[in-house]
From TrEMBL:
<dbReference type="InterPro" id="IPR003439">
    <property type="entry name" value="ABC_transporter-like_ATP-bd"/>
</dbReference>
<dbReference type="GO" id="GO:0005524">
    <property type="term" value="F:ATP binding"/>
</dbReference>
<dbReference type="InterPro" id="IPR027417">
    <property type="entry name" value="P-loop_NTPase"/>
</dbReference>
<dbReference type="Pfam" id="PF00005">
    <property type="entry name" value="ABC_tran"/>
</dbReference>
<dbReference type="InterPro" id="IPR017871">
    <property type="entry name" value="ABC_transporter-like_CS"/>
</dbReference>
<dbReference type="GO" id="GO:0016887">
    <property type="term" value="F:ATP hydrolysis activity"/>
</dbReference>
<dbReference type="InterPro" id="IPR003593">
    <property type="entry name" value="AAA+_ATPase"/>
</dbReference>
<protein>
    <submittedName>
        <fullName>ABC transporter ATP-binding protein YtrB</fullName>
    </submittedName>
</protein>
<feature type="domain" description="ABC transporter">
    <location>
        <begin position="10"/>
        <end position="235"/>
    </location>
</feature>
<keyword id="KW-0067">ATP-binding</keyword>
<keyword id="KW-0547">Nucleotide-binding</keyword>
Length: 319
């Protein structure tokens, strides 16, 4: 469980949201520290956009509490929207304006400095400033939306699928600029399907699955604490001990068994003497993608054997 501190950029406490028969968020509690790039991962329909819409005040939680930069998301949404930068997964822009014009128009809502920063971003992102937005490509429109969101140098930037529609060069440049923002104390919350990209830039990762927060942890801690354990069993059907720790998944291919385990103790091999029926034991670090699949793949086998030594580390979500 990650816990609230005054340094939290945003926080959710036991948030639930249901759309008719669909539970979009179930008892989600989360605290995002300031000055980090925080990635929200989840498969299609996991609840990422709903969570972001609750934070930005576009959707109300059925119950639970959400706050951003100390403001209540339900009753102070206007304050929140003025102080953060936000790009939705379907940014709405005035199509009849040019990027230059929309920047000038938007600058009226923000302090001095917005327009200069916005114009610099347009140049850096190679956006044709004098072309009508309706005539821009999908990626160019995404760039305009990003430049508008970052132009006032917000303390918190919330991005729903920020890199979809951007070409690989710009994606890289854009994600690196997110790391730079965090380095000067700004916070970035981004939802993404691009796990490899997230792995390069995120400080913290949360994984949502069917509306439930399954994992919240600093990325490094997650990668250090999750191991892929493999063993070869004497024969197909041999029963061998399940590793201590929190076993996320178990798969068997022929005589090889593979477990993804978090909190694997250092002395784990002690459980596998020659008489255990398991040989060729090894434990390797898991990639973020492997961790994501272990958490989200509903077809994966999860051993139900109770494990007296199971540990729940700080990567465990609060929900
Ligand atoms: N306005 C709505 N009315 C009805 N159902 C909704 C509404 N908004 C979201 N949902 C449902 O809530 C669930 C979560 O949707 P959400 O858009 O939050 O997922 P997501 O993780 O952002 O997915 P994706 O990665 O595909 O964008 C889905 O089952 C979706 O169909």
């Amino acid at each position: 469980m990650n816990t609230f501190s005054p340094e939290s950029a945003l926080s959710l406490k036991s948030v639930h949201k249901r759309f008719k028969q669909t539970v979009a968020l179930h008892d989600v509690s989360l605290h995002v520290p300031k000055g980090v790039v925080f990635a929200l991962l989840g498969e299609n329909g996991a609840g990422k956009s709903t969570l972001i819409k609750i934070l930005t005040g576009f959707v109300s939680a059925d119950y639970g509490h959400a706050s951003v930069l100390g403001h209540d998301c339900e009753i102070e949404s206007m304050k929140i929207r003025r102080s953060i930068g936000y790009v939705s997964d379907t940014p709405a822009l005035y199509d009849w304006m040019t990027p230059s014009e929309i920047g000038w128009f938007t600058s009226a809502f923000y302090a001095d400095g917005f327009l200069t920063r916005y114009q610099t971003l347009l140049t850096e992102l190679n956006v044709p400033a004098a072309t009508k937005i309706k005539d821009l490509s999908k990626g160019q429109r995404a760039k305009v939306a990003l430049a508008l969101a970052i132009g006032h140098d917000p303390e918190l930037l919330i991005l729903d699928e920020p890199t979809s529609g951007l070409d690989p060069m710009v994606r890289r440049q854009f994600l690196e600029s997110m790391v730079d923002r965090a380095a000067v104390g700004r916070t970035v919350l981004l939802s993404s399907h691009q796990i490899n990209e997230v792995e390069r830039v995120a400080d913290w990762v949360a994984i949502l699955h069917h509306g439930q927060l399954k994992v919240v942890a600093p990325l490094e801690e997650l990668k250090t604490n999750v191991r892929i354990v493999t063993a070869t069993v004497d024969s197909v059907g041999s029963v061998v001990p399940v590793p201590r720790g929190d076993v996320l998944t178990e798969t068997q291919t022929g005589r090889q068994i593979r477990w993804i385990v978090r909190g694997l103790p250092d002395d784990w091999q002690d459980d596998y003497p020659p008489s255990s029926g398991a040989t060729k034991l090894s434990a390797e670090r898991a990639t973020l993608e492997e961790i994501f699949i272990a958490v989200c793949d509903d077809r994966a086998t999860r051993p139900v054997i109770a494990n007296d030594h199971a540990e729940t580390g700080s990567m465990e979500a609060a929900s």
